[in-house]
Write a sequence for this structure.
């Protein structure tokens, strides 16, 4: 599983802002693959620079006259072609790196989407639990109020009988809801 942190994917380990070594330019921890690319690029640029310098030194010391040196200088057009080729190779290399980075971003987006889906499912189940608690609390409150009202009415009156029916209905609803949640209630 690739690291989720974009800086880690790029091969750089970020340092805390309070860390004194984070203020030093160029001090980063790179993964081996990134180090390999950096070293390859540095060696390639160094070789081109050395060849360019050697070409100039060879021309300067081997040709006696300035007219011949001028004609040899015109041969630096070949070096220009080399630099153009290297620039084109650099562009291709950059496209390759960007393609890799886009693939990693795509993978990270898929992981983020999966995490968001799981978070939404958890939130929905939590909301369903809260809704059930609210229903139970409302029924319990209503039952308590009905019992209180029934206790204030004279025994055997029509109001007393109506309140008793309400109490039984509410009690049945409460027992049914509790049994749905696996709570065994005995009457």
């Amino acid at each position: 599983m690739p690291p989720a942190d974009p800086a880690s994917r790029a091969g750089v380990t970020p340092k805390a802002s309070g860390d004194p070594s984070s203020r030093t330019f160029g001090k980063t921890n790179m993964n081996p693959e990134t180090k390999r690319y950096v070293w390859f690029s540095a060696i390639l640029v160094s070789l081109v620079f050395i060849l360019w310098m050697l070409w100039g030194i060879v021309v300067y010391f081997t040709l006696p006259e300035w007219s011949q040196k001028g004609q040899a200088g015109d041969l630096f057009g070949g070096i220009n072609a080399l630099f153009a080729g290297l620039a084109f190779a650099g562009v291709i290399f950059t496209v390759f790196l960007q393609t890799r980075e886009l693939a990693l971003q795509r993978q990270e987006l898929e992981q983020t989407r999966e995490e968001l889906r799981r978070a939404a499912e958890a939130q929905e189940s939590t909301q369903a639990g809260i809704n059930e608690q609210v229903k139970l609390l409302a029924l319990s409150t209503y039952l308590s109020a009905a019992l209180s009202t029934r206790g204030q009415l004279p025994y055997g009156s029509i109001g007393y009988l109506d309140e008793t029916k309400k109490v039984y209905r509410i009690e049945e609803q409460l027992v049914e809801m509790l049994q749905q949640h696996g709570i065994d209630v005995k009457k």
Q: What stands out?
A: The two ends are 55 Å apart (CA to CA). Helices lie at 6-9, 32-62, 66-74, 76-152, 158-180. The chain has a mean pLDDT of 77.
